[in-house]
Structures are given as structure tokens and as C-alpha cells.
Amino acid sequence: MSASRLSQRVGAIAESATMAVDKKAKSLKAAGEPVIGFGAGEPDFPTPEHIVKAAVEACENPASHKYTPAGGLPDLKEALVAKTERDSKWRPDPSQILITNGGKHAVYNSCAVLLNPGDEVILPAPYWTTYPESIALAGGKTVPVMTDISNEFRVTVEQLEAAKTNRTKALMFVSPSNPTGAVYPKEEMEAIGQWCLENNVWVIADEIYEHLTYDGHEHHSIRSLVPELADTCLIVNGVAKTYAMTGWRVGWMLGPEDAIKAATNLQSHATSNVANVSQQAALAAVAGDLSAVQEMRSAFDRRRQTMTEMLQQIEGIKVIPPQGAFYAYPDLTAFLGKDIKGEVAQTTSELAGIILDQAQVAIVPGEAFGTPGYARLSFALGDEDLKEGIERISNLLSS
What we know:
Distance between the termini: 46 Å
Number of helices: 14
CATH architecture of the largest domain: 3-Layer(aba) Sandwich
CATH superfamily of the largest domain: Type I PLP-dependent aspartate aminotransferase-like (Major domain)
Helix content: 40-55%
Order of helices and strands: HHEHHEHEHEHEHEHEEHHHEEEHEEEH
Shape: globular
Number of domains: 2
């Protein structure tokens, strides 16, 4: 096939590594292999019952069978006004909200409405795999800023200053972090927000893990801490992680009215409205209390502690307790170049392949997140599978 047959811009986009690992693990499991997957970025809980009930009722309502406004149901926007005030400590106007087809769509829309060809986006690494692809699709250039286990995977103002050029348009910022679980303290987040304000740099802040924090760490919204960012800040969020609704595909953007209007115009041609049944389910989620969320967080916290303790007992692995989200991000460089039952890995991608082949455990290598030498392990799976999976890794790497 000639290279000119397809769009070079789209052809350059890589498959999501996290989705690829999860797909392979599920495929092997369906074939009867006893694979344990640490790759999935989704809760293993069912969606809470009251949310499912709201969706069933929406299915039976003929109004849900028709087109609705491309930017989202007015009732859902109103509920998000109250939810944002409750959780993020600032109150948007409905005109500052766009309902999107999941959090990924919100990230893509944000990049599409902000970036012109050649604009640079500072991206702290490790980063979620979708960020650089959305930046590239919008014609932007990713400028990675490296963090590691020694600084608990948090970028500093000094690093941002060193990365800034006259083409810097935005900072992609996430706390709690996928893949590291890092949570920025209030003071550090304020300093980063002030730096962005002083340097006329937009902030695209991903807050989708806002309710999943541990050990006294708290989520803060950078838009609330530095309210002067109101005209140059886009917040992306969704129901996927907090409410165990990954398959429902509902996210949202919050931001200045002109940016939201532009993103709404884009969405009106790309997808039109998000599925009405899913929007009604999301309305029940964000308008309800957080009791189901607290139950899930308690389970995640228990598994987080188990995973961290077990990983720390494996000689050669360096890992710090995740402060948020549901991932651990261990340093596995001690095992590169080492004989592992007759095989030698030079990269963490190769190491992940050995672990899958020999221990039948799926992990996501750090290359996917811009930081070779590390790997992401989700603790959003059952307690017994979690323990069995880490034991298999331990037995393999300790042999």
C-alpha cells in the first residue's frame, strides 16, 4: 500500500499501549490461559445500582431516542455545576461546560481548540499514553519534562522554566497521576499555576482521579487554587474512574466560554451529542452522594497497600506507595540485562514480554509512558488475583 493512500497525520498515531496489553491479556484468558492482567485502567467493580436504574429508565423514555444538544443535556450540565462547586471549590456557568464522549474525547477536544501547528505543550513524564497522541493530532509538539522515583514523580517550576520556549502554548497537568499515582501538594500546585499565569501558558488539567487519594493526600483543583487562571485553563474529567463507568463513555470539559463554544462546534460535526442514556446515567452519578465511591476507594486502598508491600519485598525492585489513582509504578531497571530463566531483556518492553510468557502476568512497560525502566501495574483487580500475580512475578524475578 502506498504511504500516500492514508493520512500521514493519523498514520503516525500509535495504538494505545495500555489497551493493547489489556486486549492481549483478555485474549489469552479467553483461550484458557491463566493470565493475570495488571494492565487495565478501569475499576473492577460494577457500576452502582442507582446509576444503572437511571439508565434503564432513560431507555424507556422516548425523549432519549432523539437528538439532543451537541454540547450535552442541560440537566447534566446543571448537575456538573453543583458537583464542581462541591469537589473542586469553584462554580462554573453551564456555558463553560461541554459533555464529551469520555475523558479521552475531552483531552482531544482541548488540544484541538488550543493548538496551532508547531505549538509546544509541556508534558511531565511519565505521562498517560493518550496525551502526546492528542497533541500530535492537533499539530502540536510534545515537550517532555522528566520526573522519577527520587522526586516522587512531581515536576518542579524550575523544570518548567527550563522547558519553556517562545512556542510554549500549554502545560498538560494531572494530579492524581496516571501512571504513577503521584498527588501534588497544594503549595506545589499553586506555584505551578502561578508560573503558568505569569508566562501566559494554558493549563489542561486532568482531574479524572480526583476522588481516589490515600494516606491523607488530597486532590486540589489548580483552577480553584489560582482563580486568575480562569481564562487560560481547561479542566477535563469524567465518570469512568470515580463511578466505575468506563464503558458508558461520558466525560466533560470545563473552561472559558470561547474555548468551550469552539469545542462544542467541533463536536457538533465530529460526534454530535453523547448517547442520551449514558448522559442520564452520568447525571445520576454526579448528582448522587459518594457512598459507593468511598467503598471502592477503601478496596483500592487495601489493594494498594498489599501491592506495595509485596513489590518492596522483591529484591531489585524500587517502588514508592502510590498516593492516588489505582496504579503502582515500580523501577525495574535492576532486571535489565539479567538472565531470567534463559532470557535477557534489554528494555522494559522486552521484560514485560518475558513476564507475560513465563509468568503469565501482563504489565505495561514504561516505554508507553515516556519513561523506560519502569512499569505500570494496576491494582484495580481482585485481591486474590493481585496477590497471585505479584507472587508469580516474584518467583520469576527472584529465580
